[in-house]
Structure formats: C-alpha cells, structure tokens
Amino acid sequence: MALQIGALAPDFEAETTEGKIKFHDWIGSGWALLFSHPKDFTPDCTTELGALAKLKPEFDKRGVKLMGLSVDPVDNHAKWSEDIRETQGAAPNYPMIGDTDFNVSKLYDMLPAATSGDPATRTAADNQTVRNVFVIGPDKKIKLVLVYPMTTGRNFQEILRVIDSLQMTAKHRVATPADWKQGDDVIIAGSVTDDEARTIYPQGWKSPKPYLRIVPQPK
Fold first, then answer.
1. What is residue 48's three-state secondary structure?
2. Among candidate residues 58, 34, 45, the one with its CA nearest the CA of residue 153
3. Per the confidence metrics, is the pTM higher than 0.90?
C-alpha cells in the first residue's frame, strides 16, 4: 500500500550531489520536501528543477530543506545541472539523490519492490511513477503526497501554499478553506469545542453553520 499522510517517512542512506546523507539526520529538526524524477535529461523535469532552484529562498524562509531524486547516477546529475542552468537560468542549489539501486524509489512506493537491473537501460516511461512530492514535518512524518504525470509540470506555488497551511495549522488549532492563501480567513478546527473556541477567540467568529466557524488568520 502506498505511503499515506501521517506515516513515518522511511529513513535511508544515499549518495547525493552533495555527498552521502542519512535522510532523517539531514532533515534535522525542520521540514523537508522530497521530490522525484524518472530520469535525467527529461524535458518537464528540467523546467521543474530550474523553477525550484529559483524558489529556494522561499523554502528557506519557511525552514524547508529541498532534496531531489532521479533514478540515474550522481555524475549524470552534475551534467544535467549544466543544461538546467543554461536553459532555465538557474541550476539545482540543493542535493539530488542518485537512486541507481532503486532503494529510495521502492521505500517510498514509487517503484515496485521487484524492480532491479541497470538503471541506464530503463526509459523515463519505465520510471514514470517516480514523479512524487513528499512534504515531511519535523516529526519525520509525511504531511503531503502529490503524484504528477510525466506530461504535467509541478506547481511549486501550490506546494508553497500548502506548506504555509501545514505550518500554520500545526501551530494553531485551525484549518484552511478552499483556495486559502496567506492573510485569508481560516476555520476553527472541528476538534475545538465552542467553549474552547470562546477562550481562544474571545472576539467571536462568523458561523454560517454551527460546524463552520470562521476567524481571521492567527498571527
């Protein structure tokens, strides 16, 4: 069964473009985003890696470390990085895993457990399920899973929006409504009783229905 929200993110050791890492140690006490690619030198992934490099300061502000993965050797990642710099205006400024033994891809249920062989003989289509985004919290648990098809580039602004929601709702007992963005009103979580809510929000709340209690975003 695929990894689900709330599951412990599998720990692993892997070679990356920035040396060998142990994943949980690398995350430390912050947040992490693990995003995967089926093969180096693929078109959509080239644009994604460049876009993420440009957005890294936004992830840094939120205390989110970035880790990429591709089922190709680290040496290939370095060559691909130059193409990304040339075509996208920015090269990856975060580590990229060389998952040549498929270990991480299998641990994270992106490839079948029986996958084996030489990664160089596999096509991007063979690895098309290695197109995931995992957001992992300081407790090393999975907070978000997104899976993209090979022909649809990832929306990193949406991923940042979700991270903003995850970080705020982890701190405050609220939920964010559809299409929420920073500064918008939020919803008091269903786990908060009205008596508790009166203590937390003495100014009250808008309540078009008893179960829908709307308040300004907490500071």
1. helix
2. 45
3. yes
**Mean pLDDT, residues 83-103:** 97
- CA atoms 92, 108, 127, 100: torsion sign: positive
Angstrom CA distances, 82 to 54, 97, 196, stand at 15, 17, 55
Judgement on whether residues 180 and 118 belong to the same structural domain of the protein: no
Coil/strand/helix, residue 146: strand
Q: Find the catalytic residue in 40, 44, 45, 72.
A: 45
Task: Quote the CA–CA distance of 185 and 215 in Å, as a whole number.
Answer: 6
Residues 81 and 149 in one domain: yes
Q: For residue 89, what is the domain's CATH number?
A: 3.40.30.10
Percent of the residues in the chain that have a pLDDT greater than 90, as a whole number: 98
Residue 217, both tokens: 């975003």
Tokens of 123: 């096509």
Any bridge partners for residue 133, and if so which?
35, 146
Residues 179 and 148 in one domain: no
Identify whether 194 is a catalytic site residue.
no
Backbone angles phi, psi at 199, to 5 degrees: -75, -45
Report if residue 109 sits inside a domain: yes
Domain, as residue range, for 197: 172-215
Question: If you average pLDDT over residues 62-74, what whole number do you get?
Answer: 97
Number of domains within the chain:
2
Q: Tokens for 175?
A: 């939920």
Question: Residues 137, 210: one domain?
Answer: no
CA neighbor of 72 nearest in space, from 28, 40, 43: 40
**Catalytic-role residue among 75, 139, 184, 194:** 139
